[in-house]
Amino acid sequence: MQRWANPTRFLKIAQAVRPWATAATIVCLAVGLVLGLGFSPPDYQQGDTVRIMYVHVPAAWMALFVYTSMAVASAVALIWRHPLADLAAKASAPIGAGFTVIALVTGSLWGQPTWGTWWVWDARLTSVLILLFLYLGYIALWEAIEDPQRAARATAILALVGFVNVPIIKFSVDWWNTLHQPASVLTTRGPTIHGSMLTPLLLMAVGFTLFYIAIVLTRIEREILARRIRALRLLASEEPAKVN
Amino acid sequence: MMRSLWALLHHDLRISLRQGNASTSVVVFFVLAVTLFPLGVGPEPQVLARIASGVVWAAALLAAMISLDRLFQADFEDGVLEQLCLAPTPLPAAVLAKALAHWLLTGLPLTLIAPVLAMALQMEGAGVVPLILGLALGTPVLSLVGAIGAGLTIGIRRGSVLLSLLVLPLFLPILIFGVGAVEAAINGLSARPHLLILGAMLLAAIVLAPLATAAALRANTE
Lengths: 244, 222
Hints:
The complex is a heterodimer of chains A (244) and B (222). With 244 residues, chain A is an all-alpha fold. Helix content of chain A is 78%, strand content 0%. Chain A has one domain (21-178, 194-243): Up-down Bundle (Four Helix Bundle (Hemerythrin (Met), subunit A)), CATH 1.20.120. In chain B, helix 2 (22-41) runs parallel beside helix 7 (107-120) and helix 8 runs antiparallel to helix 9. Classes of the chains: A mainly alpha (244), B mainly alpha (222).
């Protein structure tokens, strides 16, 4: 694992991977959207409203996936003092918060015609709202602590504490009697939705994941460069003092 | 080890009893926050009885939260915290003692005064015992989980606002099950499952929260 801790090597790999991830994102999202919006059948109960699912479900998956990767990166950073894991967790948070907002907004837009209400306080919706607050608290803690080393450790602990919420979100539809429907793709009996809807859904999910990879690599790279600039500036401001 | 923890607990309790304001102001805040609701939503007994459990619990959450920023602040400022980090007593154990002191000064008085406020809000008699039991199980969790937030935000300017942003989302499950216990009893169901979940949260928090708090304190004092 320490092999990947070298920022220069990381930058090289990131720059090699990013164009491919970006291109694959565009292809997946384009094909997925065309299939989902144009060619998949309308639902027999929900009609065309069901097409919101092709954005809502992958965004909700990503909201959980990004938080999970943040927690894993934080654990790696705390245990092995891995310098890039800190940056990966920090870079992921705003993306995860974005996915959470997309999931909440599209869910609300879908809920109005289907359930007849924009919002209900059931377990799934409430726990996802808590997830958004956890993301926001994490970002706020990063901004509040000035010393990057200290901030990295404090936020890593917060990310791990907040991880309790992730299994609660996943299983909320099974533990409580919610208005939100239970899982229909990741079940032990195999997916319970038809292939004509499953294909675009999975394509969108892959597209969202690739999008996350492309963006997170860019953000980590930006953070590494920002730290280099800061280090160079500090060095430059110390130079004259040395001469004297 | 037990002796030094006892000394720590004794020290914390004595300081805030001598200063005499910490505990009282939390209780006064609690009473005032509850008083806002009859004045705000109107004094109709049916309305108040319907919202009583939620109001008492929400006010208890806020009252426990506003006292959190002082949990480690004084020790941080005068250097005691660094000594605790260096002391042979494990830091998580010291955190547990401090959280216990915090609970004795905030959670316990809140639990004791809550039935009076519940009566004032016309709560049905069946809900009072689950309310007390729920608060007795739930408020120590507030102190323990709140200690994590207090440890994370120590030494940050205007940290108390950030502290509420960090700990309130983590407090919500306690609110849900605490209110759930009262509502279940009022509706003729058993409050036991809700109280058992609160008990499970308390046990998990006693084990895990001091570890996380200690890690946060070490990160912030290095």
